[in-house]
Specification:
By secondary structure, this protein is α/β, with parallel strands linked by helices. It contains 15 helices and 24 strands. 29% of the residues lie in helices and 24% in strands. A 9-stranded mixed sheet has the order 2-1-10-9-11-12-13-14-15. Bound molecules: adenosine monophosphate.
Length: 514
């Protein structure tokens, strides 16, 4: 058997390909036999279009089973799958196509006209993909080619380090970088997660995440397939739809906003979640408060884990044992994790905050066509510098304190936003907060709190500051508290602090020097 990710997955499908792989919102049922045949059709179709092993295939399409089969077909052909966020504008897509130089670019039929010229200038062949409601309905040019192609394909042999995918990081500073992931990066992490989270063929995964991101594509889909389980594939997160599907599911993976939105829904009860064995959260910090409320309402302790596009999953709270709110648990088997001084790289002691560095079969091969950037983000002994700040407590649980670039240096002192946010979030009448540093004429950066209040809460800036004064050192206190209706979030539920920093960049411009 080769190291091709698809071969690794298919080896687990078992003899009975008549088992269910996915139930779809329109009532269709996809069996493992369909997975084999339809992914083979897509592999044949892309090969017929000139895609060779190692070629990139860029894909910007809505979530569908066909999109998942295209992903598997590209992997089977030995090509490199390059998913793009559906929210990207044509101008943004142009950057990715020029940078990655894909042989083939697949988009939704309705976006073809907007993207045709861009694909042409980038030298990529353009094809479209939609949803097959019945096999004789056209679902785009590539889907039609796949339908006409043979349902068998010999998966191309690949070595462990050959590339399977390039995922561009969300790039909140500077250019977005293409993280190169190998077949072994993906297969090894999926195997580890099957064992750690006790996945089995009996599992039914509720899949409501986008599939252009590592969470929905790799953590969710690869792990589920590696266990030969089945999934309920929802086009997107919708609290009503998720609650309607929960009684049939056994596991859900979500971003924290899934959990906060479900908590606002009266349908979330013990009864509705009785059939579930596991709720997993990641991609952004889960508030300890959400963890506690969820447990009180449903009886389930959400399992929080930590990963990133470049590294797949690094840590997880235990399956058995205490899942501690506000921590991301232990390094996964095979993953080495250490905390170092961000300046010197020297290892730090228990409970000291520093840079999180990781090493293991999960860690990517580098940034596409950025050898210097890649070199700068690895230590000579092979550890990847994640850019996340955190600590390991005396029990071995990893805590994330925030992104390194979100660290605030005010008057020469380091302020970790999470520490201030936790204090603000604990105040009555606060829903959530984001603490950022913005240019300040005296302090370099001024600690600034952006706060969402619960509806009608009478909280004032003076009250927030008064409460914090008793709990935090003076240099950590916000210089200003700004109330807003919502915090800006990306598709994965991450608070976009870069947008807040841009919005409030002139906040202290008027402050006169003493
Ligand atoms: P992405 O590459 O889009 O998956 O983003 C990865 C980043 O998300 C990490 O570097 C962390 O900053 C953040 N992240 C992921 N999981 C967690 C978590 N459980 N708690 C806090 N931050 C997280």
């Amino acid at each position: 058997m080769s190291d091709n990710l698809y071969d690794q997955l298919a080896a687990r499908f078992g003899q009975d390909l008549g088992r269910l792989f996915a139930s779809l919102p329109d009532g269709r049922r996809y069996l493992y036999r369909d997975v084999e045949e339809v992914s083979a059709r897509f592999a044949n179709a892309v090969v017929a279009l000139g895609v060779r092993p190692g070629d990139r295939v860029a894909v910007q399409v809505e979530k569908s089973i066909e999109a998942l089969m295209l992903y598997l077909g590209v992997i089977r052909a030995g090509a490199v799958f390059l998913p793009l966020n559906t929210a990207y504008t044509p101008a943004e897509v142009e950057y990715f196509l020029r940078d990655a130089e894909p042989r083939l670019f697949v988009c939704d039929p309705k976006r073809r006209d907007a993207l045709a010229a861009i694909a042409e200038t980038a030298g990529a062949r353009l094809e479209t993909l939609g949803v097959w409601t019945s096999p004789d309905t056209s679902a785009g040019t590539l889907a039609d080619r796949a339908l006409a192609a043979p349902p068998a394909f010999t998966t191309v042999d690949r070595g462990p380090d050959d590339l399977a995918a390039i995922l561009y990081t969300s790039g909140t500073t500077g250019r977005s970088k293409g993280a190169m992931l190998s077949h072994d990066n993906l297969a090894s992490n999926a195997k580890t997660l099957v064992d750690y989270w006790r996945f089995s063929p009996e599992d039914v995964l509720l899949h409501a995440l986008p599939i252009f991101h590592t969470h929905g594509l790799f953590t969710a889909t690869n792990t589920l397939m590696m266990a030969a389980g089945s999934m309920i594939l929802l086009p997107r997160f919708d609290a009503d739809q998720v609650l309607a599907a929960l009684p049939q599911a056994t596991v859900m993976m979500g971003v924290p906003t899934f959990y906060t939105r479900l908590l606002q829904h009266p349908g979330l009860t013990r009864e509705a979640t009785k059939h579930m064995r596991l709720f997993i959260s990641g991609s952004a910090p889960l508030l300890a408060e959400t963890h506690r409320e969820w447990q009180a309402r449903t009886g389930h302790a959400i399992l929080e884990r930590y990963g990133m596009t470049e590294t797949n999953m690094n840590t997880s709270n235990p399956y058995e044992g205490e899942r501690i709110a506000g921590t991301v648990g232990f390094p996964l088997p095979g993953v080495q994790l250490r905390i170092t001084d961000p300046e010197t790289g020297a290892p730090l002691a228990v409970d000291e905050i520093g840079m999180i560095e990781v090493k293991g079969p999960n860690v990517f091969k580098g940034y596409w066509r950025m050898p210097e950037k890649t070199k700068a983000e690895f230590r000579p002994d092979g550890f990847f510098i994640t850019g996340d700040l955190g600590k390991i407590d005396e029990r071995g649980y990893v805590h994330i304190v925030g992104r390194g670039k979100d660290l605030i240096i005010s008057g020469g002192f380091n302020v970790y936003p999470k520490e201030v946010e936790s204090e603000i979030d604990a105040l009555p009448g606060v829903v959530e907060s984001a603490v950022i540093g913005v240019p300040h004429p005296d302090f370099g950066e001024g600690v600034t709190a952006v706060v969402v209040k619960s509806p009608g809460a009478p909280l004032t800036e003076a009250e927030v500051l008064g409460a914090l004064e008793r709990r935090l050192a003076k240099f950590k206190l916000p210089k200003k508290v700004i109330f807003v209706d919502d915090l800006p979030r990306n598709a994965m539920g991450k608070v976009q602090k870069n947008i807040l920093r841009d919005t409030y960049q002139s906040l202290y411009a008027q402050v006169a020097r003493p």
